[in-house]
Amino acid sequence: MEKAYVAGRLTDEEFGLQLDAMGLADDVDTDRLLVSLAVIRDLGAQPPAEPANGGEKVPDKASDAQLALIARLVQEKNVAAPDLPLTKVDAHAIIDSLKSGSYDAAKWTVPF
């Protein structure tokens, strides 16, 4: 709906009616949203992308295979294991650093 408004396919009134139909009837919030979208439209920018699930994207958890490889490499290198949970991105970085010999256990543990 926001993209349609920015593209000029919806008027302020039509946009407001659509928001009301969804139960979003706060006039102040509607006005702020319309002003923000008008600025985006006037500057020729793209509206922000909407996350697929309607909220912030949650990073993927490390896979079982990544965790198993980390456990094996930590044991082989005789270094402290990283604290869990890990994201896939973090697990990848840890695996790379373990393989290259640049693993810093302090970076991946939380002191208590």
**Low-confidence blocks of residues:** none
Strand tally is: 0
Number of domains: 2
Q: Which radius of gyration do the C-alpha atoms yield?
A: 24 Å
The whole-number mean of residue pLDDT values reads: 87
How far the N terminus sits from the C terminus, by CA atoms, comes to 47 Å
The H/E string reads HHHHH
Strand percentage, roughly? under 5%
The class by helix and strand makeup works out as: mainly alpha
Helical content band: 40-55%
Largest sheet, described in full? none
What is the 3D shape? elongated
How many helical stretches? 5
Can you describe what's shown?
- There is one protein chain.
- This protein has about 110 residues and is an all-alpha fold.
- It has two domains: about 1-45; about 65-110, no CATH class.
- Helices cover about 55% and strands about 0% of the residues.
- The chain is built from five helices and no strands.
- The longest helix has 17 residues, at about 25-45.
- The protein is elongated, with a radius of gyration of 24 Å.
- The two termini are about 45 Å apart.
